[in-house]
Amino acid sequence: MRKGAITRQSVLKAIAEYDELGREAFLSKYGYSKARTYVLAHEGREYDTKAIAGVAHKWDQGRALKPAEFSGGKAHAVTWLERLGFQVQGGAPDFSELEFTHFLVQLLKKTGHRNVSQDVLLGPGARADIIAESQDAVLIIEVKRVSPQTNPRIEDAVNQVRHYGALARAAQYGDHRQRLVVAAPGILANKSAELLRKNGVEIWDGAWIAERSVAAGLQDEASKFLTPEYFDATQQSEALDLTDKLIQMPAGRGSWSAYQRLCRDIAEYLFCPPLKSPVWESFDDDEMNRRDFILPNYAENGFWKFIREKYFADYVVADAKNYTRGIEKQEVIQVANYLSKHGTGLFALIMTRIDPQESAVHAIKNQWIQHDKMIVTITDSDIVQMLTDASFGNDPSEVIRQKIEDFRLGV
Question: Which of these, 110, 185, 108, lies nearest to 118 by C-alpha position?
C-alpha cells in the first residue's frame, strides 16, 4: 500500500463521511485521536488532518491507514493534503525562549532534580539560563529557542555554556561535578550532535525532551513547544530512505546522473510544498546555461516568500555537484551565470558532497557583493540535517536560513 497516494476526490469523500458521522463517531470508527496542531480548513469548517488523510486511502487504495502507519504532521498528512490544494492551518508551535525555559524548569523539578534555578547571575553580564542539581552533578543549561544547525552556531553555543561552567565553578559550584547542556526544541542530526558531545556538551533536543515529558506526564505541556512528530512512534521512512541513499551514493563522475536525480528527489521532499515540483534540466533562451533543476517559488508566507522578495527568486535554481573534492571558483561562476534579476532570480543552491574550497567561498562572497547574487552551498551533512528536521515536522529551510545569516554577518 503506497502511503500518500491519494486524490482530491478521495479526500472530499472522507470529509463527507466526517460530516455525516460527526467528529467523535468518525474518529472512533477509524481509531484516530483529535488533532493537536494541524487542522484541515474546508468550506468554513475544520477537520482533523491526520484522520482525513488516513481515511482517504480507503477509496484510493482499498483500506484506511491506521494511525500508527504515518505521521499527522509535515512528514506525511499535511504535505499530502497541501499537494492536493487543500488548506492546512496550524504548524510549528509559536513560543518565546522564556516560555520554553519555564517549561524546562517544570520538567526538571518533575523528574527529581534539586535546587532548580532560572536566570542565574554568574558574573557581570553573564546569566545561566538554568542551573540544577542531579544526584551526582550540577547541570549548567543553555536554552535555545531554535536549534543551532551550522558549525559556527554550534561552536558559539559550546563556548557560551563552557564560559558559564567556568564561572559557576569559580563561584558556589566549585566542588561539584559539572554537566554542560544545550537544550533546544529542534532536532540535531548525528554529525551536529557529535560535535557537541566531542566538546563535552550534552544536547537535550526535541526527541530527548519528548521522551522525558511523556514519562513525567507532561506531554500536553511539551506539545506547546514540539511538533506532533516527536510523540508519534511512526518511523519517517521516506526521510530515512533518502538519507540512506545519500550516504551510500558514491562521489565522482560515474554516478553524477544518479546523484543529480537523488538531489532532485530530496529537494522535492524537503521543499515541495511550499515550492512547486522541480523543473528538470532547464536551458536559458541561448541554450548556453543548463540548470540541473529549478523549483518554482510562489510561496505566500514564511522563509521562501522572503527569499522570493529579497532575491527576486520566483524560481530557486539548484545545481548538483557530485565531486570527490570541494567545489571551486569555476563551479560558483557557472551557477552565477544562471542567475538574473529578470530571469530565474538571484538565488541558487549548490548541492555538493563536502565543504567548498576557499576559492569557491571567495567567489560566493564576490557574487553577493558585486552582483547581489546569493548562492548557498548545501553539503551532505546539511542535507542529512534537513531530512532529520523534516522527519520531525520541523522546517528544513532553517538550515538554509542559518547559513545565509552566518554568511551575511561575516561579510
Answer: 108
Backbone angles phi, psi at 283, to 5 degrees: -100, 155
Please name the residues in contact with 98: beta carbons below 8 A apart, sequence gap of 6 or more: none
The terminus-to-terminus CA distance of the chain in angstroms comes to 51
CA–CA gap between residue 148 and residue 145 (Å, rounded): 9
What does 175-199 look like in DSSP terms, one character per residue? TS-EEEEEE-SS---HHHHHHHHHT
Give the tens place of pLDDT for each residue, 280-309: 765 444 444 566 899 999 988 789 999 999
Give 107-119 as a DSSP string: HHHHTT-EEEEEE
DSSP H helix total and E strand total for the chain: 16, 13
How many C-beta neighbours within 10 Å does residue 259 have? 24
pTM for this model (two decimals): 0.78
Instruction: Let me know the angle formed at the C-alpha of 56 by 274 and 394, rounded to the nearest 5 degrees.
Output: 35
- In this structure, the strands spanning 114-123 and 138-143 are unpaired
pLDDT tens digits for range 325-384: 999 999 999 999 999 999 999 999 999 999 999 999 999 999 999 999 999 999 999 999
SS (H, E, C) 252-316: CHHHHHHHHHHHHHHHHHHHCCCCCCCEEEEECCCCCCEEEEEEECCCCCHHHHHHHHHHCCCEE
174 burial level (CB within 10 Å; 0-12, 13-18, 19+):
exposed
